[in-house]
Design a protein that fits this description.
224 residues; alpha/beta; five-stranded parallel sheet; four-stranded antiparallel sheet; 21% strand
């Protein structure tokens, strides 16, 4: 899962990024409204954590503009304002939840999980490719009914592949989704994690699902 944090307080943004990464999320950060909207408009994030008081474009306006473009990415608003009118305005702008500063980080993580879970419940939370099943709520993975134990990063790579069946994904695309925009795509870490997944998901099973597209990247191929 990939989260966008739009927060102009650099220290708080750094704390949020580090903490969310420790919980297995890929995190991008923007420090002003214009950059935040540009990031969000790409539509590659599963959730947006959005401060209200931002330079150049405030959180209310970002939320309104995203909703006007029919983007349904869940939005969690952060603000130091605790007046009821401000909370109502935030929700009416298109936010899905609201958290008042200062807050406990564990509460933020719980709200993030709840919003992501709510989004998944709209559709079947279990993703399937052939006999591979990936439960996006519990993060349980099975092949032919057999439980497969994955690390958080292995799971993140797999979920991205399963959400894009038959699509050839470059190493840079996988790296940017699972890690963040600061990740050096030239590193071989993506190849390493694909090898881990191939050992766990394909060795001893037929048909093979993970395919290397030479010179390009990788594909989770749906068998005919």
């Amino acid at each position: 899962m990939r989260i966008l944090v739009v927060e102009d307080e650099h220290k708080l943004a750094a704390v949020l990024k580090r903490g969310l990464q420790e919980h297995g999320y890929a995190v991008d950060v923007a420090h002003d409204g214009e950059d935040g909207f540009s990031f969000a408009e790409i539509g590659e994030h599963d959730l947006i954590i959005l401060d209200i008081m931002l330079p150049s474009l405030d959180g209310f306006e970002i939320a309104r503009k995203l909703r006007a473009r029919r983007m349904n990415t869940p939005i969690l608003m952060l603000t130091a304002r605790d007046a009821v009118d401000d909370r109502v305005r935030g929700l009416d702008s298109g936010a899905d939840d609201y958290l008042i500063k200062p807050f406990a980080f564990r509460e933020l993580v719980a709200r993030v999980r709840a919003l992501l879970r709510r989004d998944e419940l709209v559709k079947d939370p279990v993703l399937r490719v052939a006999d591979l099943e990936v439960d996006t709520i519990s993060h349980e993975v099975r092949r032919s009914g057999q439980m497969i134990s994955l690390t958080s990063k292995e799971y993140a790579v797999l979920e991205y592949l399963v959400r894009n069946p038959n699509r050839v994904l470059t190493r840079a695309q996988i790296a940017e989704h699972v890690w963040d925009y600061d990740f050096t795509a030239m590193s071989n870490v993506v190849d390493v994690y694909i090898r881990y997944l191939r050992r766990k998901l394909d060795d001893g099973f037929e048909p093979k699902l993970l395919h290397t597209i030479r010179g390009t990247g990788y594909q989770l191929k749906v068998p005919r």
